[in-house]
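Crash report, auto-generated. Payload:
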Amino acid sequence: MTSHLVTGIGELTTHDDRFGGPLLGAALVAQDGLVVWVGSAQDAPAADRRSDLAGAAVVPGFVDSHTHLVFAGDRSAEFEARMAGTTYTGGGIATTVAATRAASDAELRASLARLVAESRSQGTTTLEIKSGYGLDVETEERLLRLAREVTAETTFLGAHVVPAGADRGEYLALVTGPMLAACAPHARWADVFCDPASPYAFDAGESRAVLLAAQAAGLELRVHGNQLAPGPGVKLAVELGAASVDHCTYLADSDVAALAGSDTVATLLPGVEFSTRSPSPNARRLLDAGAEVALATDCNPGTCFSTSMPLMIALAVREMGMTVAEAVRAATLGGAHALRREDVGHLRVGARADLAVLDAPTYRHLAYRPGVPIARGLSL
Ligand code: NIG
Ligand code: FE
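Recovered output after restart:
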């Protein structure tokens, strides 16, 4: 049992309501990977080890609750075409599926490791990772096995799209039958791309069937909803008690009301609006209604190839009407709630000692210095 005292924290964001905001001149003690003491530096107890952060600001390590990090291939040409005026429909997913099926475990593992390291180097200490670029039993299971090597937060997304050439009904039978059976042992969550506006994704009835089968197999639920147009995803997620509905780009007033009256977190993905040149949802409308908001990267080769949670914070502040404090909270505590995790996303006593250390005097620099790599992840 080694205790570790971290001093010289210029500003410490804990999300502990007892402190009424960030602590200045703070210190923190961790033991066995957990926070055991937080307070003013002058009151700090002795510990076996000691390090000093020389005035750096610290926030809880970012919780990136939505990524698709296991894939092969490149779609930068699709991105360039979109910036020149084409519209995102989900059709490009087929390109990534072909490249991913053709890649070896070693290639996928190496690419995944690089992206996980990239994410951590920008302050992320908890990651969710989805399958969804296999779309056959063998590859979906393979992707989840690889994801499980790096996180407990794995999500079965066999219902990402109907693969090219497949019959819709037959594919749904596969996803809710043999594919689910093979994948469930490697996944905590199940997800579905519910968006009738995409010819490749799933409508309300199909999505409900996928989610109910997954729930019966013991998986917890999350939903890709309301990304391309107003649609049924949000209300379905709320009705089935999903932990989170992600994207929420197009929301009706009734969607906002449904979220506000539920435990389902609205996870906003500002990098997707950026990289698909889509209008941004109004986070203020959700927060003012009483809904909980999370921010995540959605890192994937199609709609947002970024692992940077600080960039998501900056975009959410600039484009979605969040204050900097709200955006930091959404990228930490919000993400934790979207994953139904009590042990991350905050730095109260008992939390995992997962920090994002900022090369800056205050958390505000996360939005004030867009594109500058000021955050790094540190697990004590
Ligand atoms: O979250 N919307 C569905 N799936 C991904 C994009 C997948 C892709 O285009 O490769 C998303 O945006
Ligand atoms: Fe996604």
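Post-recovery validation: Residues 105-120 form the longest helix (16 residues).
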